[in-house]
Write a structure and sequence with these properties.
Blueprint: H1 5-20, H2 32-85, H3 94-97
Transmembrane segments: 35-53
Keywords: Membrane, Transmembrane, Transmembrane helix
Length: 99
Amino acid sequence: MRRNKHKFRVLCGLGLLVVAFPQLPVELSGELDSVFSFSWLTLALLAIAANWSRMQQTELLRRYREEARRREQWLEAERRWRHTHGRTKRGQSRIHQSV
């Protein structure tokens, strides 16, 4: 659920917007009902946009972490290989290196 909480919030916000929008008086007048309707719609859209953005950031962060983990595994395998095969100077084999 933790990975999908922003997706869930976006879907809930869109559902709330779809259900509530037909019932709101959306007129360009200075009445209190119209001001409330526009402020409510603005708040709902901002909440949806914020959760959408956070959902995208979470996905990008997950990709970066996977890439970092993959690189760390590659570096560890490279270290192990160099440790078992040893480092040789150019042009010398391991037999001549110890002399």
